[in-house]
Design goal:
Serine Threonine Protein Phosphatase 5, Tetratricopeptide repeat; single chain; 3 domains; 69% helix; 259 residues; mainly alpha
Length: 259
């Protein structure tokens, strides 16, 4: 197999708004009562619900309404950054991250999300520094350590990446998200057997989502086991999408063969 980086599948209420403006884009100072604490709580609850349903754009709109009126509200700031990142609006996410990092330099959850925004934006060194600071402030947060592992992976530092993944696993054993990230690290280092073992372990844990299972399907394909790749892909995807995905996996597998 050629020594190359393998492309892998990569990879977050009307009743709640009673008594307030129902337009989440309402502007400050409109006399809508949006500055009342109970209204802010309702907006934040609506944002949480939208995010849970995968509607990150709507969640960002609700979070923004609270954040613009109260930039010191950590829940609003954190939710806004996360929702913008999940929605792919990285320019706005970075703008919020810049302001929030200055305002809350010792808030571990805030710094962890700032670091993830930096990471998603390709600002790798700032991401590492911010995530390291967040990990110092809250050593028990496995999500921060896993994200720090991803940042080191993207910088090409596999030993530091693995150390962070292992530290995260010590806090959350057999966590499929951590196992998935560690497996992708192994795959990028062309250790397909190690990647396959970790992804099988993640899937066996029973909490793995579609992305983890499809990463396993891709590793099966790259390892030459198209039967297993096909079984997982057909299990997860509609027939037409499964056919297209399997064709893509075969193409990648052919590209990965020694010349």
């Amino acid at each position: 197999m050629r020594n190359q980086r393998l492309p892998l599948v990569l990879g977050l209420g009307a009743c709640l708004l009673t008594g307030c403006a129902t337009d989440p884009n309402a502007r400050p100072g409109s006399g809508s009562g949006l500055d009342r604490p109970e209204v802010a709580r309702s907006l934040l609850d609506a944002a949480t619900m939208a995010a849970a349903q995968g509607d990150h754009a709507t969640a960002a709109t609700y979070y923004r309404n609270v954040y613009l009126r109260d930039p010191g509200n950590s829940r609003a700031a954190l939710g806004l950054m996360r929702s913008l990142r999940e929605a792919g609006d990285l320019d706005q996410a970075r703008q919020v991250a810049d302001a929030v990092q200055l305002a809350k330099p010792n808030d571990a959850p805030i710094l962890a999300e700032v670091g993830k925004v930096r990471l998603a934006s390709g600002q790798l060194q700032p991401a590492v520094l911010t995530l390291q600071r967040a990990a110092e402030l809250d050593p028990a947060d496995w999500r921060t350590l896993s994200a720090l592992g991803v940042a080191h992976d993207r910088l090409g530092d596999r030993p530091k990446a693995e150390a962070n993944y292992r530290a995260a696993l010590a806090l959350s054993p057999d966590n499929p998200l951590i196992l998935n990230n560690l497996a992708l690290s192994r795959a990028m280092a062309n250790d397909l057997a190690g990647a396959r073992e970790l992804l099988q372990r993640a899937v066996a844990a029973g909490r793995a989502d579609l992305r983890v299972r499809q990463n396993l399907a891709l590793v099966y394909a790259l390892s030459g086991n198209m039967a297993q790749a096909e079984a997982l892909t057909l299990q997860d995807l509609p027939p037409e999408m499964a056919r297209e995905t399997l064709a893509y996996y075969r193409e990648l597998a052919n590209q990965a063969q020694p010349r």
